[in-house]
Design goal:
With about 260 residues, the chain is an alpha/beta fold. About 45% of the residues lie in helices and about 15% in strands. The protein contains twelve helices and ten strands. Strands 1-2-3-5-7-10 form a six-stranded mixed beta sheet, sandwiched between helices. It is globular and about 60 Å long. The model has no long low-confidence stretch (mean pLDDT about 95). Bound molecules: acetoacetyl-coenzyme A. This is enoyl-CoA hydratase. Keywords: Fatty acid metabolism, Lipid metabolism, Lyase. InterPro entries: ClpP/crotonase-like_dom_sf, Enoyl-CoA_hyd/isom_CS, Enoyl-CoA_hydra/iso, Enoyl-CoA_hydra_C.
Length: about 260
């Protein structure tokens, strides 16, 4: 499948999706949303694919935000009636139950930062820069920044970022807990693909349920989350992969997963 604004390739059990509008610093327009939604649905439906990496083309940006030129002439009523940005959170995140990683190679600003934060976790190059500069355009985050950044780094830092529009470098992002790890820029894609391959080699139902449970921690009370966690565990122990995983441990060999 070929797309207008992204490229997609599979390497073993890992899907690599690259935002491909380098001249616009991979700005996110409606076509990018349509292409990503389709590519993520294809990944979700493909039983052989077990982890996905999303990155940006070029050496400058993961994505410099929602496409300002697309929004320039739109009126408030257009944004409201189209429920502009709804597709990003409604489809990309909620319908993707399998794991995916954002490999942030440069600017992740506005919608770019928000897209990265939709991932299960972020790996960032040492030259990555994160920010929610929407205030400088007279607006505010629209793809989850005010909510996800606040949950990721806490109120004070999220508020400062949103109110000043300043950028955070990779070191600060790591200290603040926004990203999982910093990787030298030259190794970012290689490292992200290796990390994804390691996840892809795990029992797939366990990977999906681990993901679901960590996400649930942001959505529920501790008590409800602990109940859900135990139920999830109790479901996983009924899988063939649990029997195989524990037998393989005792027999000192690698597990051979059936995915059920
Ligand atoms: N939308 C559309 N085009 C963009 C863009 C964006 N968000 N960001 C960069 N571009 C385009 C520029 O217009 C420029 O195109 P032209 O050559 O045709 O003029 C090209 O990409 C290169 O950009 P610059 O020349 O500006 O590159 P730079 O190295 O001087 O600066 C930058 C890099 C600091 C990232 C700067 O481009 C910038 O500030 N971009 C805008 C960042 C921003 O405000 N993002 C938030 C958008 S709103 C949003 O995302 C809402 C939301 O919450 C969903």
């Amino acid at each position: 499948m070929t797309y207008e604004t992204i490229t997609v390739e599979t390497r073993g059990a890992v899907t690599l999706v690259t935002l491909n509008r380098p001249k616009a610093l991979n700005a996110l327009n409606s076509q990018v949303l349509a292409d990503l939604t389709d590519a993520f649905a294809a990944y979700e439906a493909d039983g052989d694919q077990r982890c996905l990496v999303l990155t940006g083309s070029g050496d400058k940006a993961f994505a410099a935000g929602a496409d300002i030129k697309e929004m320039l002439d739109k009126q408030a009523a257009d944004f409201f009636l189209e429920d502009f940005f709804v597709g990003w959170t409604a489809d990309l995140v909620k319908k993707t139950r399998k794991p995916w990683i954002a490999a942030v190679n440069g600017f992740a600003l506005g919608g770019g930062c928000e897209l990265a934060m939709m991932a299960d976790f972020i790996l960032a190059s040492d030259n990555a820069k994160f920010g929610q500069p929407e205030i400088k355009l007279g607006v505010a985050p629209g793809m989850g920044g005010s909510q996800r950044l606040t949950r990721a780094v806490g109120k004070s830092k999220a508020m400062e970022m949103c109110l000043t529009g300043r950028m955070m470098d990779a070191e600060e992002a790591e200290r603040a807990g926004l990203i999982a790890r910093i990787v030298p820029a030259a190794n970012l894609l290689d490292d992200a693909m290796k990390t994804a391959a390691a996840i892809a080699a795990m029992p797939p139902m366990a990977a999906m349920m681990n993901k679901e449970m960590v996400h649930m921690a942001f959505e529920t009370t501790l008590d409800q989350g602990l109940i859900a966690e135990r139920r999830m565990f109790q479901i996983l122990v009924a899988t063939e992969d649990k029997a195989e995983g524990m037998a393989a441990f005792v027999e000192k060999r690698e597990g051979q997963w059936k995915g059920r």
